[in-house]
Structure formats: structure tokens, C-alpha cells
Amino acid sequence: MSDIAGFPTKVDISLTVNGERVEARVDVARHLVDFLRLDLGLSGSHAGCEHGVCGACTLQVNGEVVRGCLTLAAQLDGAEVWTVEGLTDTGSLADLQAAFVSRNALQCGFCTPGMLFAAADVLASGKVPSRAEIREHISGNYCRCTGYEAVVDAIETVARSRAGGGEASA
Amino acid sequence: MKAAAAGYVRANDLSHAISLLAASEGQARVLAGGQSLIASLNLRLAGETALIDINGVTELCGIALDGDVLRIGALTRHRELATSDLVARHAPAISQAAPLIAHAAIRNRGTIGGSLAYADPAAELPACMIALDATIVVQGPAGRRGVRATDFFIDLFTTDLGEDEMIVAIEVPACAPGERQVTMELARRSGDYALAGIVLVRRENGARVAFFGVGPTAVLARAAMAVIDREGSPDEAAAVLDQDIQPLDDVHAPASVRLHLARVLLRRALNATLAAEVGHV
Ligand SMILES: Cc1cc2nc3c(=O)[nH]c(=O)nc-3n(C[C@H](O)[C@H](O)[C@H](O)COP(=O)(O)OP(=O)(O)OC[C@H]3O[C@@H](n4cnc5c(N)ncnc54)[C@H](O)[C@@H]3O)c2cc1C
Ligand code: FES
Ligand code: FES
User: Would A167 be classed as within a structural domain?
Assistant: First the structure.
């Protein structure tokens, strides 16, 4: 790859990942999922299509859900990144994770980290979304195993229990 | 596959971004939301290109009403378009269009400037610009100019933007009292690019109808507009649509299906504005 004058091909970044400070020099073509998996050894974020379609790479940057494959590591100087590993440690996904297990909302698990972020996002407002709203919100996260019904069940269960309504009726 | 980015610089401000763009002589591209550009870099469809990251350029941010013009900065994210009160009040067609774009995680990053520069024929926002008769404000080393949306979109993924120019803002005539705007689309799955979509704007001085997903660019449906303006029925307007749009067969749908869907949308959109007229409380 030839150099284009004035445009460095490596960039220094300083960010936090799951609350820990990380300093790195990254190739400008490195996307966030590869940076996490290959440079930091955090393999919870999955790379499926690498062009924004499947949602397996969905995670949180500066408090918002984004596609990891459509974010370059070079863009993340000063950013705050949370992955499924970090949110598992903080416990903020614990009820969703338990509901995914009890409702059989995962089989191979490839889609699950991204699906958990999409689920957490739709629940972030604190309202209990309808099943149609849940489906709409996870429409960008492909699951090739479950057929989605169980995923919607799990998210709905958590929405109701967070709102104080206990278990959703099956 | 891995991105083919050949260099990266974060622009500090607008003049920095423009001078980098000019100096690169076509070898660099502006990186906004990255939701189309990084995807094509990952697929190695974008060629070898350097990136000028404009995400820190505050002059490109913000939405403001200036007299009867709504001004939307190029870096405004789809999610902000969907949630802004100013957009809902003064450009309802855009606030109806924004939630139809892709998925939440993509709307958090994708920008209006990026969508217009990319000029996907099935994208919602170029059609909104055409139906609203908006002006795209672009800037290069030679200065700033405004381009009418109908002159901006030239062909498939091709705009009037010069190699050394970038979009800085969009200026939309604010919705007048009594004006009605509707954006609708038909897609196989939520978040997919539409098989066909419509933006209908009914102003005192006449109707404007733009379609997307039915040709190489978003198009103004002039024959249908003329029928609406002489108070023809929705069916009559739908009947002349074959003069306005000539979709091609492709892997997603045959031409006849797209034309049919465009007619369905035109009837629905017209009926929605009529219902709004009668039923407004
Ligand atoms: C799975 C998926 C589904 C999608 N579905 C839809 C959909 O249904 N409808 C839809 O409209 N879009 C859809 N998109 C595209 C999305 O809306 C993009 O955000 C948008 O097309 C590009 O905006 P961006 O800010 O991400 O631009 P980028 O990807 O950063 O840039 C795109 C192009 O525009 C240029 N550019 C960016 N900003 C400027 C500027 N200010 N001035 C000049 N040039 C500029 C770049 O150089 C590049 O060539 C989808 C994307 C994905 C990944
Ligand atoms: S890997 Fe990012 S969306 Fe598929
Ligand atoms: S559990 Fe296998 S892809 Fe969803």
C-alpha cells in the first residue's frame, strides 16, 4: 500500500476499554472489532459480515450502540468503549443474560453479544416496549439459530421485571 | 476482509478539512459516519483512499431555524434527525424518513451529509431534499455555493460535488401552516433499503412528489404532480406514474413490481394528506 503524502498510516490512540486505559499505535485500516479481538484479546465482540449488516459486532462507544466493524480504531482517541466482557463484569447485563439462558434465546451464541447490546439499548428508556418495538429494535441483529421468538421473549421478560412487573406470562 | 484505508487525519475544523481535501488531489475522502464508507473499505470496493475524519468539526453540527429556513449541519446524525423537535416541526418529511434508515446502531453514526454525498438511489434523504426543494450548501477552496437538490443528484452514486468540495449544510424551506408532508416506503425487512419509497409535500403553491428506490437517482414525479395540482384523484395521479419513473429489473424486484409499489405508495400518501386535512384536530 503506497503512502499518500501527509496522511499517516499509523495513529496513536488513548482510550478506555471497559473502564481501563489503553494506549496503542494502530494501523488506520484496523476496525474496532479486530482491535479488540486481535490487539487486546477481547474476543466477545464478533465479526460476521464486516459491512454493517449482521449486527454481531454491536457494542457501545461513548454511551451509544454502534457497529464495531464500521468504526475504525484510529477514530477512538479519547473514547470510552464497553464490550460484553466489561458489561458482564459490571453486572449491568446480568438480568438479560439470565433471561437469554432461561428463555433459550441463544444456541450457537454467535449473535448473542451484539444482541445483548441491542436489547440493552431498547430497554434503556425504562419503558416496557411492545413486542413489535422489540422486533424493530433488534431488526439489525441477525440470528441464524433461534428464529428470534425466544430472543423477543427474553427481552420482554426483562423489560417487565425491570419495570417491577415480575416475570412475563408465557 | 480488511479495510483498504491508506492514511488517516482528523480534521480540526472546516478550513483544515477543506485544505486537506484539496491537497490530496482526489486521493482522500471525507469520513463522516463511516456507515457506507467503512463498509466499502472493508469490502475493498472503495479503492485505496486516505481518510479525512470530520467527526470533530463542530461547524458542521447543529440544527437551527433561521427565518423560514431550517438549516441542518452536514454532520447531523440520522438519530438526531429522528428526535429533533425543530425537524419534526419544520421538516416533518425528514423526521418521518429518519427512523426508516437502517437500524438504531447505524442511525447513531450515519449523517445527513454522508447520505447525500453517497447518493444511494434507494436512500430516503436525497428524495426528501428533492421533494422539499432544499438547497445543499457545499464548500471548497474556491468558496461556498448552494446547489438545488434537483441539480445535485446526477446519477447512480454521482452528485454535483467537486472532488475538492464537501457538503457543509442543508437548507430546507420551513413547513408553512397548512402544508402537509408524508414520507413512506415499502421494504422487505425493517431497516433494509426500500424497494420503493415516496416523499410527498403539499404546499399552497402546489404538490411536490419524489420517489426513491425506483431509478438511478431519487426523482421528482412531475406528471403525477401536475395531476395532483389540477385536483385529479389519487388513482388518476397513480395512472400517469409510468411517465415519471421507469424502474429496471434487478435481483430484488422486477420493474413492474417497483412501479406497482410506487403507485400504491402514491395513493396511500395522497390519502394520508387528505385524511389529515379532514381529520385534523
Ligand atoms: C446495514 C446498513 C443499512 C443501511 N440502510 C440504509 C437505508 O435504509 N437508507 C439509507 O439512506 N441509508 C442506509 N444505510 C447507509 C447509512 O444511512 C449511511 O449512514 C449513509 O449512507 C452515509 O452516511 P455516513 O455519514 O455514514 O457517511 P460515510 O460513510 O462517512 O461517507 C459516505 C460517502 O460520503 C462522503 N461524505 C460524507 N460526508 C460528506 C460531506 N459532509 N461532504 C462531502 N462528502 C461527504 C464520504 O467521503 C463517502 O464517499 C445503511 C447502511 C448500512 C450499513
Ligand atoms: S460484523 Fe459488523 S455488522 Fe456484521
Ligand atoms: S444463537 Fe446462533 S446466531 Fe443467534
Answer: no
